[in-house]
Amino acid sequence: MRLARGPARRPVVDPADSVPRRLRHHIHSTQPASESAISIFLLKRIATFVATLLAASVVIFVVLDILPGNAAEVMLGATATPEAVQALTVKLGLDRPPLERYGQWMHGLATGDLGISVSYDTPIAQLIGERLAVTLPLALMAMVLTTVLALGLGLYAASHHNQPGDVGVMTASQIGLAIPNFWFAILLILLFAVKLQWFSAGGFPGWDDGVWQGFKALVLPALALAVVQAAILARITRSAVLDVMREDFVRTARAKGLSRRAVLWRHVLRNAFVPVLTVMGLQFANLLTGTIVVENVFSLPGLGRLVFQAIANRDLGVVRNVVMLLAAAVIVINFVVDVLYVVVDPRLKANHG
After folding, report:
1. pLDDT beyond 50 at 148
2. Residue 243 lies inside a defined structural domain of this protein
3. pTM (predicted TM-score)
4. Using N-to-C axis directions, what is the helix angle for 316-344 and 303-312, rounded to 10°?
5. Structural domain range at position 90
6. How many structural domains compose the chain?
7. Handedness of CA 169, 172, 174, 176 (dihedral sign)
8. Is residue 293 part of a domain?
C-alpha cells in the first residue's frame, strides 16, 4: 500500500548561495583590494615626495655652499679685508665640513631655526614669515581669478565651438598670452590708480590696518598675474572639454534626453578636469615662485622682492632658505595634484583598484 505524497517541498536556499562562489569572492575581495591599492599609491607618492625634497635640498646646498669660491667673500664683496672675511666665515660656520653644515641646515629647517640674516640682522624665519603673509594671499587671489575666468571662458568657448563666441574667447586668450604681466601691471596702475584713483599705485599697508585694506592693495597685482595664467588655462579647458564631448558616453547621455547644459556639467566637466587640474597645479606653483617682477612693480614686500634684495645684498642665507621654501612649495603642490587625480577621475581610481 502506497502512502499519498504531499507536494514536494523546495529546500530553503540562502540568497547568498545563489551567487556563484567566484562572484561572491570577487565582491568580498574587491573593496579591500581597492583600498590596499590606493594605500600603496599614496605610500609611493609620499616616498617620491620625500626623496624629491631631499634631492632639492642637496642641489641647493651644493650650488650655494660647496661650489668653488668663499661664500663669505661673495657676501662681503671684493673690498673686504681678510680679517672680516675670516670673521664672517666663522660666524656662518663655513669653516666646518660640508656634511656637518648640511646636517645643521636640515636640523634648522626641521626646527624653524634658519639663522640670522646678514643684511637685515633679523632671524631669517621671521623675514620669510612676514613676506609670506603677502605672497601667499597674492598667489591665492591670482589663482582664484585665474580659475574663475579660465573655466568660465573655456566652457563657454567649448559649448559654442566654431561660433563667434568661441572665436572671441580664443582671440582674447591669444592677446592675453602676448601681454607681459609687468606691462599689464603698469596699464592697471595708470587706469585704476592714476586716472580713476580706485586703488593705490603700490605698497602694502599690512593686515593690521584691516583685512579690506590689505585685500584692496592686492587686487591689481593679482589681476596682473591672473591675465596670462587665465589665457593659458582657458585654452586648455576648451581643448579638454571638446575632447570629452566627442566621446561615446556623451552622445549616449544626449540620446537619453539630457540637455546640453546638463551633460556639460554632470559628465563632461569632471572627465575633462584631469589635464585642467595638472595645469592649475603648475600655475599655482608658478604664481608662488614667479611674483618677483609684479611685486617690484607694485612695491609689495613679498618673497619675490625679498629674494631680489637678498641677491643684491649678497645675503646667501636668505637666498638659500627662500629658494628651498619655494622648491618645497612646488613639490607639495605636485604631490597634492597627484593625489587629487584619483579623487577627480573615476577611471584612475578604477585602475588603482
Report:
1. yes
2. yes
3. 0.77
4. 150
5. 33-111
6. 2
7. negative
8. yes
